[in-house]
Amino acid sequence: MSQKKRRVSEKEKAEITHQNSSVPKDRSLQELLRLSKKIVVITGAGISANAGFPTFQEMRKSEHTSFDRSLYFSAEETGAFHSTICTMFEHLRSDSCQPTKFHNTLEELARSGQLLCHLTQNIDCMEQRLPNLEARTIRLHGQINQARCQKCNWVCETSRGMRALRLGELRPDVLLYGDTRHDVEIVKATEVRLVKSPDLVIVASTRLQVPAARSIAERFCRAGGTTIWISKENPSPKLRPLFDYILEDDCDVVVGNYIRVEALFPCMC
Q: Is the pTM of this model over 0.85?
């Protein structure tokens, strides 16, 4: 007999600001995290901004960098794109690149067994510095430390960045805007987690503008668990009804100021 999913009480709802831009009191957010056993977190590039990585919006506003699939029709844009990927890869390898507070919280949720999966649109591979989180991470848009053959779909790791890639054959394994490539393994892995009915879904630091990622997020949000949006921007009017709680703030600020890590994960301290 399946156990009925626990919904937060009216008292708890009153302590969390519902459907507005205020950050909730820490006890209520703590309570949601403490009681949840099957957490799904869906993230965007914003969770790595405090680690020194640019967001996709920042990169697309750049005069020379494009993340549109049409960039490969221009040698100049292709060179700029590969240079951007290489810069990100070198930053990942540097000592100055460290996981953020949000990354570390996800690592502890993974270590405690509460994190069902982390679905990320990020390509920066920060999770590889955190073994428990890495084991629960599904990358929806590829990763900067891999290259993929455009003819046979063969994938290889890149040990020295993207400068050695030959155009037209191996390309950075990154999903570009307008690309319709569908990774069967990602879809299969997502379906397995969806069947397990998460009791808490957190969408953090993304605007969910990519249709495939938005569709995945919508399906998880409709799975029956409590849903939280954490971002500097509010969700679109279409997405807003999917969320029980909307926190308009930086995800590291939410973790740093409103979650007592030592109370959630005593072994960490």
A: no
